Amino acid sequence: MEMEASSTSPASGGTQAHSYPPLRSRAFHKFTQQNLPACKAQLTPAWVITIFLVTGVVFIPAGLIFICASESVVEIVDRYDIECVPESYRSNKVAYIKDNSISKNCKRLIKVPKHMKAPIYVYYELDNYYQNHRRYIKSRCDKQLLHGLKYKKTSLCVPEEYNNGLPIVPCGLVAWSLFNDSYSFIRETVNMKVNRKNIAWMSDREHKFGRNVYPFNFQNGSLIGGGKLDPNVPLSDQEDLIVWMRTSALPKFRKLYGVIEEDLEADEIIEVHLVNNYNTYSFGGKKRLVLTTKNWLGGKNNFLGVAYMVTGAFCIFLSILFALIHVKNPRPHGDASHLYWNRKSNAN
């Protein structure tokens, strides 16, 4: 490529040739001009049929493996938000949950369907709860969670920014609506221990919630949104709050409550004593208690396996379809020698 150009100099009254600077010269490198050697696959019918067939043969067994792994997870799901409301309040659940004079204690019996090997994870599941709503999810102050009262710019926390003229720590609607149902488990008259340590992400505990930040003026207003926090425990150790503050993207979600570190045998009856404090009745929400095991693939979810199997079956279907079309209506292949890069090499 020509690297010289002409320019007119007023002093000389004529033209003067000069070279572009080195940076301009480097701009015409082979990479920028797409002159690097390349390999372009020629997708003949045989190659296309083979690719789809191999993909299907690999994906279908992989999907079966994923489904078997998912089915090996033992999961118990118990919805309790309706059953734990007294019969006389079934028609007005909101009045029940707002009346502090009514006991919120509830007992549930759950049967273990199969042997559950420890650790057994205890989750609470909420449905029709939009933690991803813009006004809700923005009502928090991450810098205040880390620095406490030292950080003053908490306007994002409105309407839970101040109470009685004093700042709230932690502020915002997300913290204010902290889930506050509690669960305890009895096995043959013996209380089962639920480990509630290390249920939050380590990165959240160490880097997002201050070790010297303590709850202040929290849930002291006339309208109580959810659970209360111990003012003598730093936020970095309040793992219930840390788990809750990691908001969900979907209206149906689970959050870790604790871990049972002992096996449960098949057909055992576990007595669950819970306190039904959290108000999901005002917006038609649902509450469930979940006990589940895990394996190398995670929890119980057949989506990945089904997706692999459907994709594999579709690929095999396409391979058969293309094979039939190729046999019935074959087309002559193009002559690769007519491709310009082959013509160029032949000319040389």
UniProtKB/TrEMBL annotation:
InterPro entries (UniProt xref): CDC50/LEM3_fam
Compartments, record wording: Membrane
One of the record's GO cellular component terms: endoplasmic reticulum
Top-level lineage group: Eukaryota
Matches recorded under Pfam families: CDC50 (PF03381)
Cell cycle recorded as keyword: no
Transmembrane intervals: 46-69, 303-325
Keywords tagged on the record: Membrane, Transmembrane, Transmembrane helix
Record-stated family: Belongs to the CDC50/LEM3 family.
PANTHER family: ALA-INTERACTING SUBUNIT 2-RELATED, CELL CYCLE CONTROL PROTEIN 50
Protein name (Swiss-Prot/TrEMBL): ALA-interacting subunit
Protein source organism: Canna indica
